[in-house]
């Protein structure tokens, strides 16, 4: 099983969401918030697709990669899940490194906030990412879905109705 950057992102957000996604239960297509994020992604930098390349690497798809400068650009709607975003970009950098392409850096871009964040792969990150990959495989491979974890941000999740239908909060 390929671990993707989306798995890494979900690992940091919610283990239940990770299990559901990893087992083929995908709710993003019904989410207005996901659609809004896609719109921000498509309209924030309209000329970017002409300058940068989409890259498929290790099961992940990077929308904007500048091969000349060795920069991965990742656009996010907000910064509310920033740690998950950082690890997602670090995983992209890790995948490049595994393919023999070194010194790639990432830029997290939050166009609605007009903020950017430079992301680099640190020495300790490699071991952390290997452990995350193992844990992700265990979570997804488990026969049972992790329990609902009641968090404030659950109400904005595309899996919210799935998780809370028939469950008492």
Can you describe this structure in just a few lines?
The protein is α+β, with helices and mostly antiparallel strands and 169 residues long. It has 7 helices and 5 strands.
Molecular structure report:
The protein is α+β, with helices and mostly antiparallel strands and 169 residues long. It has a single domain, classed as Lambda Exonuclease, Chain A, CATH 3.90.320. The protein has helices at residues 5-13, 15-22, 32-44, 48-51, 82-98, 123-141, 160-164; strands at residues 53-57, 60-66, 71-75, 105-110, 115-119. Strands 1-2-3-4-5 form a five-stranded mixed sheet. Strand 3 (71-75), helix 5 and strand 4 form a beta-alpha-beta unit. The termini are far apart.
Highlighted features:
7 helices; globular; 17% strand; single chain; alpha+beta; 169 residues; Lambda Exonuclease, Chain A
Would you give the CATH topology?
Answer: Lambda Exonuclease, Chain A
Calculate Rg over CA atoms.
16 Å
Q: How much beta, percentage-wise? A: 15-25%
Largest sheet: 5 strands, mixed
Query: How many strand segments?
Result: 5
* Structural domain tally: 1
Multimeric state of these chains?
Answer: single chain
Overall, the morphology is globular
Q: What percent of residues adopt helix (DSSP H or I)?
A: 40-55%
State the distance separating the first and last CA atoms: 33 Å
As laid out across the biggest beta sheet, the strand order is 1-2-3-4-5
Average pLDDT confidence is: 86
Order of helices and strands: HHHHEEEHEEHH
